[in-house]
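Write out this protein's structure.
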Amino acid sequence: MQQMPQMQPMQNPVMPREESYIENILRLNRGKIGTFYFSFENVQGRNTISVRGYVEAAGRDHVILSDAKTGERFLFPMIYFDYAQFDEELAYFNQTP
């Protein structure tokens, strides 16, 4: 009978640092009121939109926003995201190495 090698327990596992991609920063700030700006190419007329509301969810390639006044929800691809302005301090990742 062949004996299985014994696994050594990990000591002091190193946790990976969170990467500061926009979708991760938006996720950290779910529920905070802000204004979100988007622009679109090849659109006749108005090619920008802003939404006053909060982040419900954010993924690698999209963000779901809820309008603060109407409750209307928007799903935007992140490729159209320009920037956001928040009314309060943002949560961000620990910057110590």
